[in-house]
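Dear support,

I submitted the protein below through the web form. The confirmation email said the job was done, but the results page showed an empty box. After a refresh the structure appeared. I'm attaching both so you can tell me whether what I see now is the final result or a partial one.
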Amino acid sequence: MKIELPCYGIVIELGPEDPERPGAYQGGNLVNGLEREDGDDEYNAAMDAIESMILAHACSGINVASLAYVEGIETAVEACANNL
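What the results page shows now:
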């Protein structure tokens, strides 16, 4: 399953469905993720963490493409940009 989020060009590809957990997936991959800043290790680590959370939520079956979730991503990225 492929999920294209309407923010930051994020694209997720999920693996096969998990037969033991309906609605969940057996792993996945971020095909396109958040942009990084050269030389800004703290900001880049924050983007890694946000990406990891998005992927984990998608694999567990959370609708990461919902308007509320996408707004949460945007708020988290903006907070990192403003504070790191």
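Response: this is the final, complete result; the empty box was a page-load delay. The CA atoms of residues 61 and 77 lie 22 Å apart.
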